[in-house]
Amino acid sequence: MKKIRKKKTFEMEKLDKNGNAKINAEKALESDEEKKYRFLSLYIIYFTLFLQSLGLAIAMTGVWPYVSKVINFEFRTLRTLS
Known about the structure:
- The chain is mainly α and 82 residues long.
- It has helices spanning 25-29, 32-81; strands at 12-15, 21-23.
- The radius of gyration is 28 Å and the shape is elongated.
- It is built from 2 helices and 2 strands.
């Protein structure tokens, strides 16, 4: 993996009314390569989240008939107790 070179942390663009240098905050926080790797990691996280939700949906369709029977049985017993 190649090293990531950071850009200059402070790029002066203009001076404000007091003579202080304005800093371009977007370029000061991360370089273009760091931004690319950050978005790549976010895409990976979202893809794994999608796969997990898809797997849960598939598993629940197979288990749902048994779960519904258990839920109906518990509601019937609770109604008779009260």
